[in-house]
Design brief:
Shape: elongated
Family: Belongs to the BZW family.
Organism: Vitis rotundifolia
Pfam family, one: HEAT_5MP1_2
Distance between the termini: 81 Å
Number of helices: 16
InterPro entries: ARM-type_fold (IPR016024), eIF5-mimic_regulator (IPR051245), HEAT_5MP1_2 (IPR057397), W2_5MP1/2 (IPR043510), W2_domain (IPR003307)
Protein name: W2 domain-containing protein
């Protein structure tokens, strides 16, 4: 098998196609006990990759394998072959880009694979941004510099605004220095953190929709983290006072919020603050 695969250039195109189909069938029909890496790794000879022979072969392999198997099965096979994280390695070096990947496999009718790869790239970019922000916030970097970092990464990676808001809240709260079971110290630490990084949230919560998304994020975290359960109204009030959340957003969540996690408890806890908002509105 290895010799066949490392000698692709000796075969005619139709013979390479037959070999790709046969290779796919050995895994699809479980005709051999070969570990995937013993078949896939030998393909990666520089001269075969450079000539596009590997890309052509692996495309035929994918198409045949997916006749009787799901995309999840293919990804599992690639994982076992230690290929799942770097599918661009099958492409000639000049074509190793996300755009080339999407263009090639879309043309070949493998749209689910394209969608999987785009999701994978998206997740990596989110992870990289979160890591960079975690470091900056831990180092107490100047907030203007952190804002520029976020703007640049959003521009480079084309990250959706909603995902940015979610990441910002996660990173800010992950950096809080919690104090064991001392509820008051935890409350003070959380509220200090919200106040310290409010400008960062404010910069990217640029619409009512994004403010509502942030409020849902706060709701979910307070529901899932016992030490934050009682802090929900105080966090919401702090975000309001720092001009991150508008009154209309808070009232919309209070009256028509759709996320059920802890909703009844949080609505009840927020009632005094909402009543104050409504009274202030009436006075105005």
């Amino acid at each position: 098998m290895r010799r066949f695969l490392q000698s692709l250039e000796l075969f005619e195109e139709n013979e390479r196609k037959k070999l790709a189909i046969f290779t796919a069938l050995t895994f699809s029909q479980k005709l051999s006990g070969l570990p995937p890496e013993t078949v896939l790794q030998p393909l990666l000879k520089d001269n075969l990759v450079a000539k596009g022979l590997v890309l052509s072969f692996i495309t035929d392999f994918f198409k045949e394998y997916l006749v009787d198997n799901s995309l999840d099965d293919l990804i599992s096979l690639l994982k076992r072959g230690k290929m799942e994280d770097n599918l661009l390695i099958f492409f000639p070096s000049a074509k190793r880009s996300a755009e080339s990947f999407s263009e090639h496999f879309t043309k070949e009718g493998l749209v689910p694979l394209v969608e999987y790869n785009e999701k994978k790239i998206f997740e990596v970019k989110l992870k990289e941004m979160k890591s960079a922000l975690t470091t900056q916030i831990a180092d107490d970097t100047d907030i203007s510099e952190v804002i520029e970092t976020v703007k640049q990464r959003v521009k480079d990676a084309k990250l959706p605004d909603i995902e940015v808001v979610r990441i910002l809240w996660d990173v800010i709260m992950d950096a809080v220095q919690w104090s064991g079971k001392n509820q008051q110290q935890n409350a003070n630490a959380a509220l200090r953190q919200v106040k310290a990084w409010a400008q960062l949230l404010n910069t990217f919560c640029t619409s009512g929709k994004l403010e509502l998304e942030l409020l849902y994020k706060v709701q979910i975290q307070c529901y899932e983290d016992a030490k934050l359960m009682k802090l929900f109204p105080e966090i919401v009030r702090s975000l309001y006072e720092q001009d991150v959340l508008a009154e209309d957003t808070i009232l919309l969540w209070f009256r028509k919020g759709t996320n059920p996690k802890g909703r009844q408890t949080f609505v009840k806890a927020l009632e005094p603050f909402v009543k104050w908002l409504e009274e202030a509105e009436e006075e105005e």
